[in-house]
Amino acid sequence: MESYRKLDKKNKLFIHVSTDEVYGSVKEGFFDENSNYKPNSPYSASKASSDHFVRAYFETHNLPAIITNCSNNFGPYQNKEKFIPTIINSLINKKIYQSMVMVKI
Question: 2, 4, 8, 21: which is the annotated catalytic residue?
């Protein structure tokens, strides 16, 4: 982040990719960006702490940044057993699963 701070940031935005797991388990309803963090695993706690660090750093230095708390982030090198790669591989192999039951198309 220090390197980013030293860059020419004209029309540049820092994007910190986090996870929805920082909000913990939601038994009913949903969460939004105003919900309290309630991480319940070492992974989600580390992501929550990185969110707080990014927010504090960029506010301190008055820099443009956003933090995403998405579910099922997707990108290169993602574990093929995660949700989106599993669905893509199922489609490629013409195997669609719904509620743990194979559905033929």
Answer: 21
Average of per-residue pLDDT across 30-42: 91
- Asked whether residue 20 falls in the same domain as residue 64, the answer is yes
Question: Which candidate, 85, 86, 68, 67, places its Cα nearest to that of 76?
Answer: 85
Residue 8 designated active-site: no
- Record the pTM: 0.71
- Residues 29 and 56 grouped into a single domain: yes
pLDDT in tens, 65-78: 999 998 888 888 88
Q: Which of 43, 57, 77, 81 is catalytic?
A: 43
Whether 32 is a known active-site residue: answer no
Domain enclosing residue 87, as ranges: 75-105
Catalytic residue at 59?
no
Amino acid 99: pLDDT: 54
Same domain, 53 and 7: yes
Residue of 2, 4, 8, 20 marked active site: 20
44 and 87 assigned to the same domain = no
Residues 57 and 84 in one domain: no
